[in-house]
Amino acid sequence: MDQLLSTDMDLSSAETDQRIHDLSGQKQSGLAWVKANVKEINDWVDRDGFALLRGLNIVSTNQFSTILETIFGEQLSQYIYRSSPRTALRNNIYTTTEYHADQVILQHNENAYSNCWPMRMGFFCVVPAKTGGDTPLADSREVYKQLPEALRNRFEERGIMYVRNYGDIDLPWQEVFQTQSRDDVEAYCWKNDIQCEWFNDGRLQTRQFRPAVMTHPQTGEKVWFNQAHLFHCSAVDTEMPDSIGADYLPRNAYYGDGGEIAKQDIDVINQVYRDLTFSYPWQRNDILLLDNMLYTHGRQAYTGTRKVLVGMAKAAR
């Protein structure tokens, strides 16, 4: 899929940004320091919506998972009902989305297309890219506020219908639902208010209806919380609808009543994201903690080798 380039502000200076916490002077191991400072770390995320921990001594993926479980206070979540390719490692740690290095991943709140999403996310930079490869952020509260009122009201009133067709073009259903069983897929869909239909050619189609705007359970603020701009047909190869037919697109987004979303509206949404996006160049061993409802994340295109891992917890509905 073609992705839109984002424009990022560089806020990399730890001397001027209180959301970067330089811990390089700590003599304790990364895990020991985290265990001694759990409340303060969570206070940072509650206060600012995210926190970048820089300079901790972290020696393994297992240590990263233990650090996240210590901070989040629970086991990490499995990633089911996926929308992008990634590799599962131990203890519910995953690689970040494995799209080709020349692609930009648009801003999004994780699993905002689903009725179950993580409230907390943690990213770990094992190897920073040679160039690019940042994980840009944007404040979902500001996205909501800066969208034109008429557009915002239209989405808020009508909601969104996400349509997915699973097969060779996009992820197969076996990977998305992490099962080989059609019965398991149907049970998951029933439990999560997803309409599913099997076709004679073996293709699976799902439809899910979700709000475009949510209220944060702690702050009480409205946030723009959806992936209409990522699922919309304008985000895929422009020649794909003619070659396979609009009904067979791997994914698309409509208003909740089935009405088409105008490309011009998607363009406005993407522009607001671009206007609000900023990034911190990754350094080795950085840990970025996010409130997944308050902040979106994405990925810049990059060169060289890049390895960033992610873990999620505190499921919400």
From TrEMBL:
GO terms (BP aspect): antibiotic biosynthetic process
Cofactor: Fe(2+)
Keywords: Antibiotic biosynthesis, Dioxygenase, Oxidoreductase
GO terms, molecular function: 2-oxoglutarate-dependent dioxygenase activity
Gene3D superfamilies per UniProt: Clavaminate synthase-like
Domain TauD/TfdA-like: 35-312
Protein's UniProt keywords contain Oxidoreductase: yes
Keyword Oxidoreductase tagged: yes
Highest taxon of the lineage: Bacteria
Name of the protein in question: Taurine catabolism dioxygenase TauD
Species assigned in the record: Pseudoalteromonas rubra
Taxonomic placement: Bacteria, Pseudomonadati, Pseudomonadota, Gammaproteobacteria, Alteromonadales
